[in-house]
């Protein structure tokens, strides 16, 4: 479903991705973990070409996005994306947030778009918020609207860029529950996250990235439970038990 | 504390005493100035010259049906043209094509750097010469709208550009991710939000434009096309009396003060609305 070949990405002199090869099968849930600055968000943003790769290939659903002839807008319709900062449209109601792209991009008639929107808002547990505005919702609710907005386009892949990192801890559960539901329903998902419990329970495969390369990957339980590389082991021990870190042991965040 | 006490041999002013003296001095000065002004003014002359009821009565209804009406027409058409032009220029300023950016920048710098008066003279005389045989729709009305539009577009372009740049980048990204093209995302997501942001500054621009519409007198207008300032000025010189100027001033303020108030309210509401 997703195929990434020898992907490089530089911002000026800074080489953020240094040769990534990756495949995600249809229906697979892949979590990408790693320290901040490791390039995992950039990798995700390259998959739908929000960032243009410096070199390499990205193929989604049989279409090569990195081909200059590719109709990027058409491919993006089939790739849903959820951001850390939700990025709901603040000037539109919840319902309009979920219908606007259906109307403007898919040219669905108003009634049909609304039906699809209501069904997806129901799916994320927010059917009672259709008329609210984003500013009136909690972070967790906003993120679930953002998920409904992406789902309304009928994507075949969903990308999640640290979807719970901006949330208050007690709101994380609702969003993760929605994502777990999606995974159970067979959605192909690529999730950049720091939620190790979620990764262990829901992911089929976990990828550990550091300094722009994939250091290690494997089945979730194995990867998180008993990582092979030193770097993954150090990272995981800190994430799973932050209080145990020794003074002076902590280098870059 | 002990240092102050030790050095102060003479009794020093307390803080409260000093404040009383300063405030008292300020009020005193104010009262003296007002008293001098009031006593030196010739109230009979002022009344006859600035608030002459008979002359004021003669002004109606023409001051409204000709003066205010034309002022409003010039302002609104000029604002509409300026808004459209400003939006286009703002988008050109942000374009990825360099010639567009250069043109917009040059336009903005030129028209912000020139007195509006010059633009009016130019539109009144230069445009008919440059494009012989063409005439703007509405004659003088078209010319006034064009002149005001040309000037205000430059100011509004900068305001709107700032508004567009104030919309978070994530909005464009979210829209693109949903499959919208850049143009579609701009039109349905970014620009509506940018316009909301720039409503207060644009309202202020409208106030400025309202006043600048008085420059239409440089276009060679007929009696029926006079706006407030020109109309009041004409009657004042005919009658040898300044009452029409006062009436015109009141007409301006009736429009501008509520508009400024509205702009402040909108701005305050926006500040509150920010998360």
Backbone shape of chain B = flat
Order of helices and strands of chain A: EEEHEEHEHHHEHEHEEHH
Instruction: Give the number of helices of chain B.
Output: 12
- Biggest sheet architecture of chain A: 6 strands, mixed
Regions of chain B with pLDDT < 50 over 5+ consecutive residues?
none
Helix content of chain A: 25-40%
- Taking all residues together, what is the mean pLDDT of chain A? 92
The portion of residues forming beta strands of chain B comes to under 5%
Element-level helix/strand string of chain B: HHHHHHHHHHHH
Contiguous runs where pLDDT drops below 50 for at least 5 residues of chain A = none
Helix percent of chain B reads over 70%
**If strands are numbered along the chain, what order do they take across the biggest sheet of chain A?**
6-7-8-3-9-10
Mean pLDDT of chain B: 88
Please state the CA-atom Rg of chain A, rounded to the nearest Å.
18 Å
Cα separation of the termini of chain B: 46 Å
Would you kindly provide a written description of the structure presented here, covering whatever features stand out?
- The complex is a heterodimer of chains A (253) and B (275).
- Chain A has 253 residues and is of the alpha/beta class.
- Chain A has helices spanning 40-47, 72-76, 94-104, 110-123, 139-151, 169-184, 196-202, 220-225, 230-240; strands at 2-11, 14-24, 29-33, 55-60, 63-64, 79-82, 157-161, 188-192, 205-210, 213-219.
- Helix content of chain A is 36%, strand content 24%.
- In chain A, the strands form two sheets. Chain A has a six-stranded mixed β-sheet with strand order 6-7-8-3-9-10, with helices on both faces.
- In chain A, helix 3 (94-104) packs parallel to helix 5, helix 4 (110-123) crosses helix 5 and helix 5 (139-151) packs parallel to helix 6 (169-184).
- Chain B has helices at 2-7, 15-40, 43-50, 53-59, 62-93, 98-113, 116-130, 140-166, 169-177, 182-212, 228-239, 243-273.
- Chain B has 275 residues and is mostly helical.
- The mean pLDDT of chain B is 88.
- Classes of the chains: A alpha/beta (253), B mainly alpha (275).
- The A-B interface holds A 48, 50, 73-74, 76-77, 79-81, 83, 85, 87-91, 100-101, 104-106, 135, 146, 149-150, 153 and B 168, 170-171, 173-181, 184, 188-189, 192-193, 196, 273, 275.
